[in-house]
Amino acid sequence: MATMLISNVKAVLRDRIVNEAEVLIEDGKIVGISEKMEGDRAPSDLQRLDGQGHLLIPGMIDVHIHGAKGFDMMDGTTRSVEEVSRACVETGCTSFLATSVSSTLEQLLDMVASVGEVAGREPGAAIAGIHMEGPYLHPKRKGMQNEAYLRHPDLEELDTILASAGDRMKMVTLAPELPGAMEMIGRLVEKGIVVAVAHSDATYEEAKTAFAAGASHITHCFNGMRPIHHRDPGVIVAAFEEEKVSLQAIVDGVHLHPAIVRLMHRLKGPEGVVLITDALQAMGMGDGTYLFGGHQTRVEDGVARLQDGTLASSTVTMNIALRNTVELGVPLCEAVAMATRTPADILGLSGKGRIEPGCDADLVLLDESFDVVWSMVEGKLRYQR
What we know:
With 385 residues, the chain is of the alpha/beta class. 26% of the residues lie in helices and 28% in strands.
């Protein structure tokens, strides 16, 4: 017997919007989506939730977030992970990858351990796994990554990390041109872990070799990598040519020009572009000075930079990234897919990222400004404004 009926919503499905939709939920799963039920056709013994005509989308999935609300997941404390979970769900994100920055092995293992302690008892968004960004990155394209911690791929060290993380390790970002990187890509692919490329000075040919070996994703595309040149196309053009390679996009109005966002969408389609925040602990906090990755980071007008002016992650939230993407001209259903279904597919989360029978009732209600009215994780309201 179904336990909840969400009514009076505009439900965003794979390729259409159903006005005056009703969504039936039982035991945390979606069991039906329909047009408005007429009178006695609607079951009478349900918990009812009136969507007030707002937009209902699948819960968004952030595959790249470092912190929020003053908390950095590299702190190595369970509280930081819990607070990021809360911040995510308040902004329409119902699943996320806890993302590291380059650090010592000990700091990374502390972060992995704290994520493991919180997984399964999250107060907000669910932990879908861990995204290890670094430390196997190229100093020339380090961006905000701390060069003191950058090093060449080390399979023995990787094995230690994976032994601690287990099946929670879902994505690893590395520079494929570094010595030992190809062997590491092979090891990660064997274990079903998504290999992403960034903070890389890889040539077009080096990137093609990495993709042939199984790398399939680009972290914060265009940022932290060799730029496109007409005689030196680099990793970006190599990725554009590979159908299986997907791209992360930080759509905050700073990291990518609007024309670049439209280009990425045009070339890859909604199934090949993933909206992310790449947020640091300043997300939801406002301007100020923060310690991030061992650097003093200054946030002014919502833009985070190191002292030398280098961009240092972002403060954008998933709901604002979605709004920005739609305002840039991407159709709503496709923009929603980029924040929901596409990351779910990349991570192999078959029951997430879509409003379909049999899927988890991870749902978000947005008003006309894309502000979050409420967020639901597996049929349970985790946030209401």
